[in-house]
Amino acid sequence: MESIRQKSSVRELAVSGICALAAVLCAGRIFILLRAQGSVYTMGIFPMALLLGIFSLWKGALFWKKVFFPVPVRAVLAALFTSLQVYGLFASHPGLTGAMEAVLWSVCLTPLTFAGLNMAFYLAGQSVNGTEREGFAATEQDKKSFFGAFLIVFAGFCIPFAAYYPAIMAYDVIPQLDQIRSSGLTTHHPLIHTLFLAGCLKFGEAVLFFPNPDRAGLAVYTLLQMAVVAACFAYVYRFLRKSGVNRLLCYTFVLCAAVFPTHGMLAVSVTKDTIYGALVMVFTVFAWELSAKKEWPETKWLVCYVMLSLLLLLFRNNSVYAWVFYAIAAIFVCGRKMNGTAKMCALHGAVLLLYFLVNGVMVYASAATSATYAREMLSVPAQQIARAARYHEEELTARDLEAISAVWGEDLPEYVPAIADRSKKDITADREILRILAGEWVSLGLRYPGDYLQAFLLKNKGMWDLADTTYLNDVYSYAKGYLQITYPSDQQEYMVALAPGYRRHQRLGFLQSLYRYFAAGDELWRYCPPLALVMQPAFYCYLLLFLCLCCIALKKAQILLPAVYLLALAGTLLLGPCVLVRYMYPLMLPVTVLSLLLFGRSRRIRGR
Question: pLDDT tens, 381-390?
Answer without folding.
Answer: 999 999 999 9
